[in-house]
Design brief:
The protein has one domain. 0% of the residues are buried. The protein is mainly α. The radius of gyration is 29 Å and the shape is rod-shaped. The longest helix has 37 residues. The protein has four helices and no strands.
Length: 103
């Protein structure tokens, strides 16, 4: 039973072997830098996006940007809630605590 039979297609072992093979071809001169980059990106599943290129959807409302906005909104609302709690505590509850007689 060989490595290709024991590990399912697309596993880390297959990926590492493919990258090693591409590196050997690149080192031997069979692949140019550009060809090596495209083959490596294809093996990593980047669909033609070069690893040294900037992501195309960085400023176009990607899921990461939406997640960052949501987290920032949650942090902002937490701060607003904390401030409101402190204001109500200081203005309502502290005066009532001082109204009780102390023994």
């Amino acid at each position: 039973m060989g490595d290709s039979e024991s590990a399912p297609s697309g596993t880390t072992v297959d990926l590492a072997a493919e990258l090693e093979r591409l590196a050997r071809l690149h080192d031997s001169g069979a692949l140019s830098d550009d060809e090596f980059g495209r083959a490596k990106d294809a093996a990593l599943g980047r669909g033609g996006a070069r690893s040294d290129a900037a992501p195309a959807d960085r400023e176009s409302g990607s899921l990461g940007t939406a997640a960052n906005r949501y987290v920032n909104f949650q942090i902002g609302m937490s701060v607003v809630g904390l401030v409101l709690f402190l204001v109500v505590f200081v203005l309502v509850f502290l005066p009532r605590l001082n109204a009780f007689p102390h023994p």
